[in-house]
Structure formats: structure tokens, C-alpha cells
């Protein structure tokens, strides 16, 4: 598929080609004027998103279900932007997990407030823990720890989104009540998840770029596969990364943080972030909230375009689509 055909299908217009402002559109201000302070506003984030991306369409399932092969937006692309070539693996995984949504309690909410917790050092010493725990859905990324950091990062985890190399390797690190969500960036990731749900031995020779978890202490119904459409949409429609014929290439893979924000804009009514943003002007600041590695340790990434992602996230903050609790974006 050509890039022009792809953009035509998704009605893509780069974010920097659209106007954005710091204030709500007048009709939205009127619509939500009578909501009390702190009350969840149904459809708020997607309405603001549509104001800067007029063709943004909210309906997109968070997780793959047994109808995944019928979803045209991901069928024509190989990982990470789709599921082409993964049918048998995904079918085998879903036949065991059998759950494709959030929890019944979360699905029943008429309005959902979600927060994505980044791993940045900007989270340290902010004492945001109780505020984070007030959100209906708390999303954490990769192996970022909670225990010992509750004052700053909260104790609640609803979803932990990761890929094999980013997953916690010690079973005791996992939260008891969270859902484990795979973000599949390559075909080996789906093969790894099949090993996990079938409790088979994980092979270290399957093309992983570092050691991976060999066991995840979650029962199959607690495991989900993130809809790869969010990786595709974040990369090409929202951030404007190189299309590269729909294949993984230099600088065209969005970070997991931007992917999680994209997911939340589809599945949540209000979206916040915390722990996002790296300030390269402070090389001695902590890179992550949970370790002593400094900002200067950041190396240029082959797969990500951090500057483009900053532009995208700043637009969302400026237009009030998302709220940045730590002001790092």
C-alpha cells in the first residue's frame, strides 16, 4: 500500500498543519459548563482531539478479540503496525485468554478517567501518589516499579503495557490486580506471548535484543493483546513519522508512552499523563524516577524520533486534550 493511499484511508493530516489553541472550543465550553469541579466529563478528550484532528474517530477496540482478522486497518501491515502473518499465533493466544475487554466494573462506567504513568525522573518527589490513584484506569509501562515509590507514583495499576524485552523478569514484581497487556512490535513478541499463556519454555534464541521474562504470573484471562492500530495511528496519523512502506524503519516507531496515550484517547473520556518528558538541558537530573542513571545517559535512538513526539504531545497539552500532572512535556 502506498503512503498516499494509506493517508487517504485514514484521512490523515499532520498535526502541525492544523490549528490548535490553549482554550476549549466555545461549543465544548458550553457543553461542559454545568459539570462540577472534578467531575468526569463524558467524551471530553475525544471532543478536544477532534477539534485539532477533525477526522479523529474514537471507535477502536483497546485489545484484539476473535474478530481481529476482519479489521481492515491492521490486516495489511506486519508488526508493529498490524497483524499480517500473525493470524495463527494470535488465534492460539486468544483461544486460551478468552477475555478481550477491561474488567466488568470498568466497562460499566459511564465516564472513565485515565492516566498514563511515564517513567521519567520528573515524577520523583512530587507526592502525586494519591492523586494518581484517584483515576479509574492507571496505565504503567514496561518494568517501572511501584513498590517503594507509592508516595510519588501511586499504588494502583490497572494495565501494565509492555513488550518482551521490557517486561518485569521477576514474578514477585507484578501487581496482583492488574491486566498484562502485550504491545507487539515484532513477530517474535507474539510468539513469546504464546509461550507465556501456554506456560511453555521461552527460547532465548528467538531474536530478542536482550533477555526477556520467562514467566508472567498472570492467568490467561488477565492477559490482553494491545490493538496494533494504536501503534500505526500514533506513528503515521498523529506524530507524522516516516511511512517506510508500512515497515519498521529508522525513526518511525513511536515510544510506548505515545502509543498508550493514543490508546487512552480512544478508550477514555479524560486523559492525563505523569512522568513524561526528558529535559536534556539538565544532564545531571535523574533519567527515571526509580534509579540513579542521569539524563546524560540518553543515547540517540535508531527507532524513535523523540523531537517529533515532543511536538505531538505538546500540541495535546496545549489544546487540553491531555493533562500533564508533572509539567514535563
Average pLDDT score: 89
Radius of gyration (Å): 19 Å
Given helix and strand content, the structural type is: alpha/beta
Amino- and carboxy-terminal Cα gap: 34 Å
Strand-residue proportion:
5-15%
Tally of helical segments? 12
Helical amount: 25-40%
| 3D shape | globular
Profile the largest sheet: 7 strands, parallel
Stretches with pLDDT under 50, minimum 5 residues:
2-22
The H/E string reads HHHHHHEHEHEEHEHHEHE
Biggest β-sheet: strands ordered side by side in the sheet: 5-4-3-2-1-6-7
Counting DSSP E segments of at least 2 residues, the number of strands comes to 7
Descriptive overview:
- This protein has a 7-stranded parallel beta sheet with strand order 5-4-3-2-1-6-7, sandwiched between helices.
- α7 links the parallel β1 (113-117) and β2.
- α10 crosses α11.
- The protein is of the alpha/beta class.
- The two termini are 34 Å apart.
- Mean pLDDT is 89; it is low at 2-22.
- It has helices at residues 3-10, 26-31, 44-52, 72-75, 87-97, 104-107, 129-133, 150-153, 187-197, 229-239, 256-267, 306-318, and strands at 113-117, 137-141, 159-162, 179-182, 223-225, 270-274, 322-324.
- The chain is built from 12 helices and 7 strands.
Provide the fold topology.
Blueprint: H1 3-10, H2 26-31, H3 44-52, H4 72-75, H5 87-97, H6 104-107, E1 113-117, H7 129-133, E2 137-141, H8 150-153, E3 159-162, E4 179-182, H9 187-197, E5 223-225, H10 229-239, H11 256-267, E6 270-274, H12 306-318, E7 322-324
Parallel strand pairs: 1-2, 1-6, 2-3, 3-4, 4-5, 6-7
Helix pairs in contact: 5-9, 10-11
